[in-house]
Amino acid sequence: MAQTVLVSGGAGFIGSHVTVELIQAGYDVIVADNMSNCDKTCLLGARKITGRKIPFFKVDFCNRNAVERLFQANKIEAVIHFAAFKAVGESVEQPVMYYRNNLDSFLNIIDVARTHGCRNILFSSSATVYGQPEELPVTEESPRQEATSPYGNTKQICEDILRDSVKAYGNVRGIALRYFNPIGAHPSALIGELPRGVPNNLVPFITQTAIGKRECLSIFGNDYPTPDGTCLRDYIDIVDLAKAHVCAVSRMMEDKMKEPYEIFNIGTGRPVSVLELVNAFQKVNGIKLNYRFAPRRPGDVTAVWADPSKANKELGWKAERPVEETLRAAWNWEKYIAKK
Ligand code: UD1
Questions:
Q1: What is the pTM assigned to this prediction?
Q2: For position 1, what pLDDT does the model report?
Q3: Which CATH class for the 4-184+236-268 domain?
Q4: What's the 130 CA to ligand 1 centre distance in angstroms?
């Protein structure tokens, strides 16, 4: 019988792609989400891609009783936890809301999972924990820096909660995946990123400008000490990123972990500038994008990219999709949404 993975926040951008890849790898998946930051589009899309019913539960993970009921009603062998608030600026304005939501939900999951004999917990962390690294690329041993936002801090605290829980409770093991910049959409264009309001992240802003929803893309800063003056990031394709979760889950389930708590960088290892990404988008999609240079965005780091060799070696995972394909998929998704 297939093993069952609970995907918290499984109706969102990353969660829905991970759900699809898990099912295609032979796992049973239960999606639970409070739908606070998404609609049903990606859940329905995931069902269509996989041809599977995909059980869905509307659950707020801050509600311990609801989490308890979820684990009572289902035999869950692993949890992948995505359900969290993720807007950096909003977290600065509403720190209590961010700490409460992002920490309570994870504490409930760890507590309830272990009392139900669910040993395997995967946490979605972020390269934001590295801040502006002194040395590039960053390895998992690179020091974490003091977080510049409550959002970033919740990522660090949740990593620590998982690490300490694994240490204290002999029956729990955990993996934290530190994502660099996830972008793109499924090649089917049936699932993708669906930001509410004005997008904070670069690629949704690009695609919304291309479709005419936004007038002009602002490139935040062209005076950085980088080759073209714009920031450098490690843009990782969303399907590649999702596949890393399948590798990590099977590593946990098949008892292949070297330590009971492990951390992996999930990135390509290649720095790409904002301008390069914008130009690549224009080229592959044959679109002239309206953009201008604007002042730096407070809180942005100059450059960060991954050394993904630990994930390559230990997880047997590698980023494969060329950025051109990723940007084509992002555009196809935007067009699909516009027609809906
Ligand atoms: C941001 C968050 C990070 C989070 C990640 C999730 C900050 C400081 N960091 O990363 O904590 O984990 O999203 O995906 O917010 N850019 C523009 N114009 C835009 C939007 C972005 O020029 O309209 C530039 C930014 O200055 C940056 C790059 O594009 O250089 C990428 O930005 P973004 O997609 O927001 O990701 P990060 O800031 O790297």
A1: 0.98
A2: 78
A3: alpha beta
A4: 14
